[in-house]
Write a structure and sequence with these properties.
heterotrimer, A mainly alpha (168), B mainly alpha (332), C alpha+beta (186), B: 332 residues, mainly alpha, C: alpha+beta, Alpha-Beta Plaits, 5 strands, elongated
Chain lengths: 168, 332, 186
């Protein structure tokens, strides 16, 4: 079990590194898809099968395909890609990444996930069973869940608005 | 322990590595003969009895053809793409209970795994189209990604009423529920129609074969492929057809059971259940062919309209209705 | 030349869900499917088949009319006598010059001489690649010695193989009963 954990962990990190260093958008998107699959494999090792399947289904199967779709449609050329560089953008990127990392570390430590031994059934996670996931999602974390879905709704309305304006 | 693992591996190899490709080859033959019969022709009937050995000749032809990799392609992805279509197609079948107590991987989240893995198949098509670096392939790949996302939604949502009714995502228990009560086709007929139509779009079969669209895109995403690489794309399509037929049978038509028929215990019961399953799957495979050689291709915008404006709302309404019935009228 | 606007008809609900036409189409194709299937299963001959139109060549061949013009060949009469008298009219009349005849005279002792036949073709060749199957040879022959077969499918690997000599032409033509027997009854 531990061997598998290290295999997928190393693979995930390596794929993530490759994803952010590729200049080719399509290649980067594929490496990200591999990251998702590796994370799903980690879920399987924790016997959270439901989460694993949903991870692959939603992230690798739908969201990354949409990314790929957009990348292929836009097909950024070198000149346009160069426009997206520069010291200011780099600085903004570094700040955002630092913020995200801090938030992530805090969350994980608060949840006590560092203490979960490798390869054991993750007691902190709603292990596998669909019912457990649903119970947590719709009872305990209902408010954050609804806020997230509201944000998504706003994004959808915005997207529709942008396309409509371009049409007229 | 070790024998257990070896036995499982052998089982997986026999079903996925031997039976499925053979079935796919047989389907190629069936496709050619059925299409011929529907067009008042006779089809390939020379190689072997009734032309049954034609697939072997076809495979030999594919193997000995020159394997051209065009100079303008992205080599790594071009070579990887057929495998990225083929492997998910093989994996998906592993959760289907094809006879009593027989499934390679009887998982609790069975159907979720089907959707998760089959949603990865679109990568192969999209990447194949992109890596070929030709306009027809690219159009095919882009169409495939848009189409498959649209219909995967309807496909997955149309299955949710089944779980609401049976209370399990394990395909084995879905079959058991149907054997005890009634084929899910009857209470959930709209879900069956949506699932069937979406599975035609998922497998890129007519009337939804826009990624291939011979009349507009030469051969769509596999325009630049030849020899065995093309054959692998081709096989993957047929294996997907088999898998989705098997899923329709399992989810809506009682799987390997028949109503009013008690399967005998022991080996014969298992064999009989396998035969029942095969017969049902054959019918749906024939339906695939029948529809293909009857209906013309949908226009791409019609396809998208159908997916997002008809199928998806219909699914949502169906889910709410089923949930309502389950909660208030007939709580399990 | 104005712009012509094509008005799309407004479809009713039943038309928009496609179901009627789909069922209609499926009925049509399954009818053809089972029609051809019974044709094949019952091993029906070509003219008895209900839907299948494909001819199973070479087991099945075309039904030619009697006046079909195939390959020209030489014939013998019922006494196994080669009828050609090497008059060379066919050679002369042949539009593509496919026929070549090397005439020869009979010896004094030959049977045919008594009956008045003087010549015979020592060699008689038809180049089937030149032949246009016009039938002039058959039409012009005073001896009814050359006929066009119903057969027109000749196979060979080289050009030389298509130059048919006298023996081959006679073998292909076989015996054709002669009712007049003008030399015999002389």
């Amino acid at each position: 079990m531990t061997a598998f954990f290290w295999l997928f962990a190393v693979l995930a990190v390596a794929a993530a590194m490759l994803a952010i260093t590729r200049r080719n958008g399509v290649a980067a998107a594929l490496w990200v898809a591999l990251v998702f699959v590796c994370i799903a494999a980690q879920f399987v090792l924790m016997r959270a099968y439901f989460l694993a399947a949903v991870e692959v289904l939603v992230y690798a199967g739908a969201i990354m395909v949409l990314f790929l779709f957009v990348i292929m449609l836009l097909n950024l050329d070198e000149k346009e890609a160069a426009r997206l560089e520069g010291p200011r953008l780099h600085a903004a990127g570094v700040v955002l990444a630092a913020l995200f990392l801090t938030g992530l570390v805090f969350t994980v430590r608060e949840a006590g996930l560092f203490e979960v031994p490798i390869g054991s059934q993750g007691s902190m996670l709603p292990a596998g069973e669909t019912g457990n996931v649903a119970r947590d999602l719709f009872l305990e974390f209902l408010l954050p869940f609804e806020i997230a879905s509201f944000l998504l709704l706003a994004a959808i309305v915005g997207a529709v608005l942008i396309t409509k304006r371009r049409l007229t | 322990m070790i024998w257990d693992v070896l036995g499982k591996l052998l089982h997986a190899f026999l079903v996925v590595g031997l039976v499925l490709p053979l079935m796919a080859a047989l389907m190629v033959w069936a496709e050619r003969r059925v299409s011929a019969f529907m067009q008042d022709r006779l089809g390939p009937n020379r190689v072997g009895p009734a032309g049954l050995l034609q697939p072997i000749a076809d495979v030999l032809k594919f193997i000995f053809k020159e394997d051209v990799i065009p100079g303008h392609v992205n080599r790594v992805m071009y070579v990887l793409a057929p495998l990225m279509v083929f492997v998910p197609a093989l994996i998906v079948f592993s959760v289907v209970p094809y006879a009593r107590g027989m499934a390679i991987a009887p998982l609790n989240i069975g159907i979720l795994l089907v959707f998760a893995v089959s949603s990865l198949g679109v990568y192969g098509i999209t990447i194949g189209g992109w890596a070929s670096n030709s306009k027809y392939s690219l159009y095919g790949g882009v169409r495939a990604s848009a189409q498959m996302i649209s219909y995967e939604l309807a496909l997955s949502l149309s299955v949710i009423p089944i779980f609401l009714v049976t209370g399990s995502m394990n395909l084995e228990s879905v079959v058991a529920w149907q054997a005890q009560n009634v084929w899910l086709l009857l209470p959930l007929f709209p879900a069956f129609i949506i699932f069937l139509v979406s599975s035609y779009a998922e497998t890129n079969r007519l009337p939804f074969d826009c990624p291939e669209a011979e009349t507009e895109l030469v051969a769509g995403y596999h325009t630049e492929y030849s020899s065995m690489k093309f054959a692998i794309f081709f096989m993957a399509e047929y294996i997907n057809m088999i898998t989705f037929s098997a899923l329709v049978v399992t989810l809506f038509f009682g799987g390997y059971t028949l109503p009013f028929l008690e399967l005998p215990a022991g080996l014969w019961g298992t064999v009989l259940s396998g035969c029942i399953f095969a017969a049902k799957v054959s019918f749906f495979l024939f339906l695939f062919l029948w529809v293909r050689w009857t209906l013309p291709r949908f226009r791409y915008d019609q396809l998208m309209d159908l997916g997002w404006k008809v199928m998806l709302p219909a699914c949502l309404v169906l889910i709410v209705c089923t949930a309502g019935v389950r909660a208030f009228i007939w709580p399990g | 030349m104005g712009i012509k606007v094509v008005r799309r008809p407004k479809l009713s609900f039943t038309e928009r869900i496609y179901l009627g036409p789909i069922v209609k189409g499926l009925r049509l194709t399954i009818g053809h499917f089972f029609g051809t299937l019974t044709d094949v299963v019952l091993r029906r001959k070509q003219h008895e088949r209900k839907t299948a139109t494909t001819m199973q060549y070479p087991e099945e061949r075309w039904d030619f009319k009697d006046n079909f013009r195939g390959a020209p060949v030489l014939v013998s009469d019922q006494f196994d006598r080669m009828k050609c008298v090497a008059c060379q009219i066919c050679e002369f009349v042949c539009p593509p010059k496919a026929i070549t005849i090397w005439p020869s005279e009979f010896d004094e002792s030959a049977d045919d001489v008594e009956k008045g036949v003087e010549k015979y073709p020592e060699r008689f060749e038809i180049d089937m690649l030149r032949c246009i199957y016009c039938g002039y040879c058959e039409e012009s022959c005073p001896e009814e010695a050359i006929f066009l077969l119903q057969e027109a499918e000749l196979v060979g690997r080289t050009k030389e193989e298509f130059v048919f000599d006298r023996e081959k032409l006679l073998a292909m033509g076989g015996v054709r009963e002669d009712r007049a027997l003008k030399w015999h009854n002389k």
